């Protein structure tokens, strides 16, 4: 029973995190300071990215891994913006029950992925699908390992 409860809760938490990330983008766009440049894969000192940095990182990640053209980058950003707008509207909707909101947010996310996939070439689609599978595996391994102590460091 615990496993059945954990998965939807984690999915809802992930969805809420993505929604928060997408909703903060307009505020971040008004910040005139340039984003910090960094060659590492993650934020410094193991910290967390703010929502604007997460979306920017996602675009940079896809651009690098899929070798997106400038036109594709523009299209992916537009898809992300439209998805964020829909998520924000749904988040602010007080008439929709929470369980329905989660399902609708998952639908918006899936539609966004499908639209991004439609922008890609056949080779990029193969790479995109592989990246999605890797992320799914990581998420599932985190979910199944939740509550377990971390493995000991190698010696």
UniProtKB/TrEMBL annotation:
Q: Which domain of life is it from?
A: Bacteria
Keywords in alphabetical order, please.
Signal
Short name of any one Pfam family annotated for the protein: LTXXQ
| Secretion signal, residue range per the UniProt entry | 1-29
| InterPro entries assigned | LTXXQ
Region Disordered: start-end pairs: 27-56, 132-155
Single GO cellular component term: periplasmic space
List the protein's name: Spy/CpxP family protein refolding chaperone
